[in-house]
Amino acid sequence: MSEHDVPDTTTAFVAQAGRRLDDADAFVSREVALPPLRPHDLLVRIEAVSVNPVDTKSRAGLRSGTRQLGWDASGVVVAVGTAVTRFGVGDEVWYAGDINRPGTNALLHAVDERIVGHKPTALSHAEAAALPLTAITAWETLFDRFGLTSEDEGTLLVVGGPGGVGSILVQLAKKLTRLTVVATAGRDESRDWVLSLGADHAVDHRSLVEDVLAVAPDGVDLVSTAHSAGNVEAYAEIVRPFGHVVAIDDPHHLDLMPLKRKSIAWHWELMFTRAAFGTPDMVEQGLLLDEVARLVDAGVLRTTARTFVPGLDAEGLRTAHEIVAAGTAVGKVVVHRV
After folding, report:
1. Global pTM value
2. Per-residue pLDDT tens for 299-324?
3. Which of 57, 73, 88, 249 has a 20 to 30 Å separation from 227 between CA atoms?
4. Which is nearest to 48 in space by CA: 68, 26, 72?
5. How many CB atoms lie within 10 A of CB 255?
6. Coil, helix or strand for 35?
């Protein structure tokens, strides 16, 4: 299929405003238009998607109409744009999409090749779909925001260790740096999970300061946080002078003044930034995913998929959103074709 043979429409599975997740029509099937492929676009047959907290927040915030959600995806290229150079028809790919374009909850999806990677051959599409968004977020946190190298030492605290980003960030930090990794985990299952991924210590987020200082008496150098609200004063206490915090969540009315006394730097990480602004280094996201795929195929990293929902359709997505919205999922929740 060339760019001239791209169909006009595809089946999408859209969230409806004004619905609860236990409503049968929280998600419905719709035939939606496929825009003409842009020069750098791939048209991908979606085989699996995963559901992230950003998906559930976007659905909950929908005030009217419908929205095609979804960012993580794994699939097969069925058509390419005129300027595509890195992929061909038949290639298996994975990616996390562009927040300014329709989401991946569809049978066919158009995406810019520069933010796409070659899928790991060692993983099924369902296993692969769990990783792109979280792997990009974790990689950019460690190597772009913190500016770490393979030689760096120190102590990293991962707040939200059992979650999707935390689950891959723990692995990357342990495999690619010399950091000591402390991860929060409030339940026995969560503790077992983060320790199995390589964390040196698991601590309870409900007694964060006490537990962290018990395993790192001098404090930590770095914090990656998925739960910033209400924790800034705790970070000010446990982070060493000139330390760094990277936040991936969306806290409101955050007061960072407690960090000033120790000159602690606060950074934001949003993996959609490159695609949203078409930055000159946009292709770095695709190359990053290729490197993560290489590490997966080499057995260095493992998938964080833990829950698989069969049926890439409206009901499958509704079920997956229910699981993620409950806030108790360990690892990632994936919806896949059967």
Report:
1. 0.94
2. 999 999 999 999 999 999 999 999 99
3. 73
4. 72
5. 9
6. coil
